[in-house]
Design a protein that fits this description.
- 40% of the residues lie in helices and 21% in strands.
- By secondary structure, the chain is of the alpha/beta class.
- 48% of the residues are buried.
- The two termini are 19 Å apart.
- A hairpin with a 2-residue loop joins strand 6 and strand 7.
- The chain binds 3-isopropylmalic acid and magnesium ion (MG).
- Magnesium ion (MG) binds next to helix 10.
Length: 361
Amino acid sequence: MKEFNITLIPGDGIGPEIVNEAVRVLDKAGQKFDYKLKYTKILMGGCSIDEYGVPLTDEAVAIAKSSDAVLLGAVGGNVGNSRWYDVAPNLRPEAGLLKIRKELELFANLRPAYLYDELKDACPLKKEIIGDGFDMMIMRELTGGLYFGERHTEEVDGVVTATDVLTYNENEIRRIAIKAFEIAMKRRKNVISVDKANVLDSSRLWRKIVKEVAADYPEVTYTDMLVDNCAMQLVMNPGQFDVVLTENMFGDILSDEASMITGSIGMLSSASLGTTKLGLYEPSHGSAPDIAGKNIANPIATILSAAMMLRYSLDLDEAADAIETAVAKVLKDGYRTTDIMSDGMKLVGTREMGDMIIERI
Ligand code: IPM
Ligand code: MG
């Protein structure tokens, strides 16, 4: 039997509930596909601040680094929570997430957004725009750009002034572009690279390097698109996108937009990868503190993230397929959590949704 070490980060808000369901699903698939996962829990985010005064300890990072993969729920809370937020930026819950991405060198963030047939009614777009649906992969650069640049607030000539620096070097751009083209080769062979090259130097370099990488993939159709146009195209003609390659902040924003048109952010998984097999898997949504502990959160995004973990870090493709198929079946059978509920469907809670998926593996 194959055995793997998994670092679990339940995190804050709904994190513990949804990770719990993902673990039950993983274990069920393990019985069927003959693998065993050994879990080690670490604290990250607000819960780590409460316990250790920092959002992620170096000991926790070391545990994550030595494991085969990391499965994360969500971190953070209400910005009004002064214990977590009235502190320096590097001590806030989200800093734990940025730190683990950087420490594990997870520069490539894959966020798939596709429309399940069963959820077409939950899609906020008009039927004529939805057409035959859509299936895209947002490939977001995750360890560079604005979120990792130098930042400070100071008084300049008596005026309070805040600065955030946006930097990319050619190597950072090249390695994410290669990942995007590699993934496109396994999909519909289309890459749209998103930038703001009509204004930003970092985007002009981005465009130049992506073009160079594209030359090595003659089978892949490649186009550049400005980010403001892309935001518009996503709600006007989502079917045109296959792989969307973009930098950190644009990817953060566009992936939320893409997830919303799938009907619910509660459905979207993500994988963060680097150059080794070690990856971090998390739902694209946040910690939703307002609904935490009520057994109403949708666990599907985390369960689908766990499936991505099996596929990309552990090479257990069959088990990953089985989980994805089980999720599709549950939707077909009419089970819905509140966020994706529609007329005539059967409403279930977090735990029950987990049960329904487990039954179908
Ligand atoms: C995301 C989140 C994070 C990000 C925050 C919580 C730092 O919005 O994963 O998209 O911007 O990367
Ligand atoms: Mg985000």
